[in-house]
Amino acid sequence: MTSMRERMLAGELYLAEDPEILAELDRAAVLMERFNGSRADDPEGRLAALRDLLGEVGEGAWVRPPFHCDYGSRITLGPRAFVNFNAVFLDVAPITVGADTQFGPNVQLLTPTHPVEPEPRRAKWEAAAPITIGDNVWFGGGAIVLAGVTVGDNTVVGAGAVVTRDLPANVVAVGNPARPIRSLA
Fold first, then answer.
1. For the chain, which domains are there?
2. How many CB atoms lie within 10 A of CB 117?
3. Prior bond to 115 cis, omega within 30?
4. In 3D, which of 84, 47, 44, 88 has the Cα closest to residue 65?
5. pTM for this one?
6. DSSP-assigned letter for residue 131
7. Cβ atoms 64, 81 nearer than 8 A
8. Distance (Å, whole) CA 129 – CA 10
9. Most buried pick, 119, 145, 148, 173, via CB within 10 A?
10. pLDDT tens digit string along 71-104?
11. 114 included as an active-site residue
12. Among 153, 100, 154, 149, which residue's Cα sits nearest to residue 178?
């Protein structure tokens, strides 16, 4: 029999109230508090707190607090990635961010999903799908990326855009839902 955690990691429906999952959430909450409370005049300590929270932090990557996530351990930041303040990365499924990608303030990456049918939703079943962000992508402030989306290299996502499906490389995408309006190639 598979555990709820194994179901969650496989992208299947699971119940988040499982004790093993709750323990992971508690661990992340403590590490998030440590990172968000870190001192600006102690960049090494702040970076150490970030490395303890996230799964992988590439060379020269940086996150400005406050930062919020579910588990942290499923987030990979590529080299020189920059995340501005008030970011929300809900990493029930993996979130992979490429090199040199930049996020404006208040950007949200949301991997969780919930059943559309009322009964399983009422019973608290949920699932997730990964988010993959290529290299050298730029997200304007307040952009939102939904579960299962891949954004190609060099793409620019406008402020306030809601990315509901994959975006190719080398485009500017804006709106809700986000649509490419211009090629950068």
1. 4-180 (2.160.10.10)
2. 10
3. no
4. 84
5. 0.96
6. E
7. no
8. 9
9. 145
10. 999 999 999 999 999 999 999 999 999 999 999 9
11. yes
12. 149
Spatial separation of the C-alpha atoms in residues 6 and 21, rounded to whole Å: 10
Q: How far is CA 86 from CA 8, 69, 78, 144, in A?
A: 26, 11, 19, 13
183: burial class by Cβ within 10 Å (0-12, 13-18, 19+)?
A: exposed
Tokens representing 74 are 């499923």
119: its two tokens: 């009964």
Amino acid at 180: P
Q: Tell me: cis bond preceding 180? Omega within 30 of 0 counts.
A: no
Please enumerate in sequence order all residues whose Cβ is within 8 A of that of 39, keeping only pairs 6 or more positions apart, or say none.
45, 46
Q: Looking up tokens 């975006």, which residue turns up?
A: 167
Given 27, 34, 114, 179, the catalytic residue: 114
Would you state the pLDDT for residue 185?
A: 77
| Whole-number Cα distances in Å, 156 to 76, 107, 142 | 20, 13, 13
pLDDT digits (tens, 9 = 90+) for 48-57: 999 999 999 9
User: Tokens for 65?
Assistant: 């607090």
Average pLDDT, the chain: 97
Each residue of 8-44: b (16+ CB within 10 Å) or e?
Answer: bbebebbeeeeeebeebeeebeebbebbbebeeeeee
CA 49 to CA 35: how far, in whole Å?
Answer: 5
3-state helix, strand, coil in the chain (%, to 5): 20, 30, 50
